[in-house]
Amino acid sequence: MGNNSVRGEGTHGRVEHAGELGWDEGLYEHDTAGATAADGPGGPARPAGPAGGSDTASGSAAESASGPASGSGSGPAPKSASDGGGRRGKGGGRRRRGKRRRRVLKWTAITLAVLILGTAGAGYAYYQHLNNNIRKGDRSAGGSDAKKAAPNAQGQTPLNILLIGSDSRNSDANVALGGAKENRGSAPHADVQMLLHVSADRKNASVVSIPRDTRVAIPECKDPDTNKVNAPTSNVINEALGRGGAGCVLDTWEKLTGIYIDHWMMVDFAGVVAISDAVGGADVCVKQNIDDHPTKAQPGGSHLHLTAGNHTVKGEQALQWLRTRHAFGSDIGRSEAQHMYMNSVIRNLKDQNAFTDTGRLMDIAETATKSLQVSSELGTVKKLFDLGMELKDIPMDRINMLTMPRLPDPRDPDAHVIPDKARADALWAMLRDDKPLDGKDDGKPAAPSPSASKGPAAAAPGTLPVTVVNGTGTDGRVAAKGRATEVATALKGKGFAKAVTGSSSPAATSEVDYPQSAGAQGKADAASVATALGLPTSAVKASDVKALTLVVGGDWRTGASHPQQDPKAADPLKDTETVNGADKGACMEVYAPYRF
Prior knowledge:
globular; 33% helix; eight-stranded mixed β-sheet; five-stranded mixed β-sheet
């Protein structure tokens, strides 16, 4: 038949306007052996012309090499010079078609790879964008000295994060939202301060607020912006932020509580508004109509205006709710309202499956990274995401929020408070010991069977070296002189002949530490020291000490034996306005002058 004049019967079927579509012949390049006859001595055959064009001799040769296209009829196969006998071999066509398919797959794979890499590149760029949004600061202002909790039997440790709300007016947005433009440029105050404690096993969480007008000992702090070192002082706790940034607030909390705080997170007025919108707001309730307006006695006010009943607040209205103080009776009432708000936000996020909704998470991440300032070791999107994932599975009924036990400040009883030492210290001890505030002790071991081993017996007192240190220099007070010597002498009188004194180590409460490597034997030996001096079993702790160590803390400033307290008098949860996360019926009482 000579040259086949049927269009589209070349080495592969042609597509109209193939060049315009970007499907060029390079995708189907012939290999050298398969194209020899078609190429001829003058080099490779040129690409086939458009479907309507005439076939040249070389184009016809190319068509002859592969025979009729699929569906073009059943006539005899054209002969080719490459056949040798004038009849084209059947296997050659199949091999060429197989090679073409492999080339198509190859280029499809390359195209997909480019798309995947491009998407990954865009994802990485967005990840870096989020990281660059985050503002970071030093964890401590130089005064952090609390001990990190020892891991439990599973190697887990509690997580403590300080949440700070700043009243800074150092931006147009914050002045517009917070008023008081005359304060622009002045040192900010930490008007909201909460400690989030997450148990080592991540089964429960507690949030404790300290009212902003609580007078405490603020330690020496170095201002991160000016490098000025501010001397220790006794003042209201919200002043700490202006003396050394968020790191100074953290140091103040650690000095007061003895709790090691892993991180801090801080937000200003504008950040609250943005985050509230991103998470969809919160459901709140007031028992009476409320209008938190300025009065002669109390100029200012949040301008929150709601009718009695349930409401969803977001954006600026959410900020008004969180700032309302006078209409809720005091700063204590404000803390309670803030706890209700936080519980509602967590409930809503859980109900909406926001923790597993990629779109929601990206929206929240974009807003949060722009709105939050965090301690430097928490300053990546991955670490913030990991933190969220650690919190998402805690049941709402295992989340409790409360306000620190307090008493009127003798210096200014109408305006300030001070920690109720006995009850506050008992609360801090519960958190240090990772005890849940709802009374459900997750870490309590099951009762041993009668055949179970009771563990090793303590060594004879006379064989135990015990180092006694004076830790009474806490809460801004000077250490009680001679306490280590006095208690060491008392220990010797009880048979611990190897008791000696060591260097001072401030601690809010007394404890008996034993080396973690000492295991059950070390615990038994430490318990024998605690029993001899009247210390509770909760005072016995595994630590990074090198030898058995008794720390005489701020709760034991006098006497040869640990003072016994009335458990009822030291109830840490009494009158703390506790709000449980599962309580959807919580509702705020409105102070009469602010009702309408």
